[in-house]
Amino acid sequence: MMEGRLIHWCALETGEATSGEPDAYGQFATVVTTASSRCVFSNGRGGKDLESGAFVADLPKVVLPATATVTEGQTLVGISAGWARTYVVRAVRTVWNRLRVDHIACDLEAV
């Protein structure tokens, strides 16, 4: 259901790989591997003033297709205009329709 509404693009860091020849010190170059995915970014709904006087800001969010693999603490890089920055995934929620997983919703924190 959500597939047609995914209007943005992001890259999820999937790990690190080493390649090539070692340098003069015997060290290999490390390359971060990523997987691109369609998504929808959104701003949080604002913040909350607590009775204590503290202000809690709502986190930006991203919706990913049900086929995406994402975990808390994973790095996500926005590719689309207006969202082109690096985020850390702070919470992951699987959203179901009646029969199957419809999409994955995540809270993000900009880094």
Strand content: over 45%
Given helix and strand content, the structural type is: mainly beta
Distance between the termini: 31 Å
Give the count of helical stretches.
0
Q: What is the helix fraction of residues, given as a range?
A: under 10%
Write down the secondary-structure element order.
Answer: EEEEEEEE
Radius of gyration (CA) equals 17 Å
Number of strands: 8
Largest sheet: 6 strands, antiparallel, barrel
Q: What is the topology, as strand order, of the major beta sheet?
A: 1-2-5-8-7-6
Mean pLDDT: 85
Overall spatial form: globular
Total separate domains: 1
Low-confidence stretches: none
Structure, described:
The protein has 111 residues and is an all-beta fold. It has one domain. The chain is 0% helix and 56% strand. It contains no helices and eight strands. It has strands spanning 8-19, 29-42, 47-49, 55-57, 61-65, 75-78, 86-96, 101-110. The strands form two sheets. The protein has a six-stranded antiparallel beta barrel. Strands 3-4 form a two-stranded antiparallel sheet. A hairpin with a 7-residue loop joins strand 6 and strand 7 (86-96). The model has no long low-confidence stretch (mean pLDDT 85).
Q: Which features does this protein show?
A:
single chain, 111 residues, two-stranded antiparallel ribbon
In short:
By secondary structure, the protein is mainly β.
Task: List the topology elements.
Layout: E1 8-19, E2 29-42, E3 47-49, E4 55-57, E5 61-65, E6 75-78, E7 86-96, E8 101-110
Antiparallel strand pairs: 1-2, 1-6, 2-5, 3-4, 5-8, 6-7, 7-8
